[in-house]
Amino acid sequence: MRIVILTGAGISAESGLGTFRDKGGLWSQYDLAEVATPEGFARNPHQVHDFYNARRENAARAKPNAAHVALARLNGTDGPEAAIVTQNIDDLHERAGSRGVIHMHGEVARSLCGACGSRWDAAPETHPDDPCPECGNCPTRPDVVWFGEYPYRLDEIERLLRNADLFAAIGTSGEVYPAAGFVETAHANGSRTVEINLEPSQGASRFQDVIVGRATETVPVWVDGLISGES
Ligand code: APR
């Protein structure tokens, strides 16, 4: 069985990382136009680095939870294998043992040269005038995809979705495209679709199955079912 799993901020919520759109979420504390757009970066690059320096520090302190760990069991050795596509910029899937994770919105632990496009492992604290190790120029920016920019690896994701037998969206509000449209692509190509979320998202009716609850409780049970062949 070919499985494609899309994860969002909700899977890392119980590791202590804030989501974006829940009550008290990041976008109620920060103006996304100022910290998560190319225009905001052009206006105030220091403020943008400060925002992502805090995200990087929080992510480094956080530990993978039972949901990340359960998904890492879908590695083909004791049953089905899943491709994990995440909107998250943390590395909790990798630290739980998942390999080949597709970070469609980039990674906060990486830096990107605004001049030549080189990428490298970010220092714990970054600044716009950090020189690029490749070309020596700047600005340096976090290697994250901002609103108004194209997510990474969309062709590869599209191919995975077209060939999937099962598509699962875990811990995402489904409000941000193109990820929010993956369920339609998967469904149109004959895949079964399931949403696993704290509460049904606004787009829950687009999924055939909806599993409601905290990711640390629902995901391990769901993975057990896949491995035993019951779901
Ligand atoms: N278990 C399962 N789901 C949860 C949990 C939990 N413990 N806690 C919260 N959720 C759900 C919420 O109900 C919500 O539907 O996770 C979802 C989080 O939604 P968002 O905050 O919108 O996060 P996400 O969907 O990942 O956002 C997409 O938006 O701002 C951009 O680039 C950013 O990648 C991000 C994208």
Could you explain the architecture of this structure?
The chain is α/β, with parallel strands linked by helices. Helices cover 33% and strands 19% of the residues. Strands 3-2-1-7-8-9 form a six-stranded parallel sheet, sandwiched between helices. Helix 6 (66-72) packs parallel to helix 10 (215-228). The radius of gyration is 18 Å and the shape is globular. The N and C termini lie close together (11 Å). The mean pLDDT is 97. Adenosine-5-diphosphoribose binds at residues 8-10, 13-14, 19-22, 25, 87, 105, 171-173, 175-176, 197-199, 201, 214-215.
Write the topology of this structure:
Elements: E1 2-7, H1 10-13, H2 26-29, H3 32-35, H4 38-43, H5 45-61, H6 66-72, E2 81-86, H7 92-95, E3 102-103, E4 106-113, E5 119-121, E6 140-144, H8 154-162, E7 166-170, H9 182-188, E8 192-197, E9 209-212, H10 215-228
Parallel strand pairs: 1-2, 1-7, 2-3, 7-8, 8-9
Antiparallel strand pairs: 4-5, 4-6
Question: What hetero molecules are bound to the protein chains?
Answer: adenosine-5-diphosphoribose
- Name the shape in a single word: globular
Could you give the order of the helices and strands?
A: EHHHHHHEHEEEEHEHEEH
Q: Percent of residues in beta strands?
A: 15-25%
Mean pLDDT: 97
According to DSSP, the number of beta strands is: 9
State the helix count.
Answer: 10
Oligomer: single chain
| Share of helix, binned | 25-40%
Q: Measured on Cα atoms, how large is the radius of gyration? A: 18 Å
Strand order of the largest sheet: 3-2-1-7-8-9
Low-confidence segments, given as residue ranges, are none
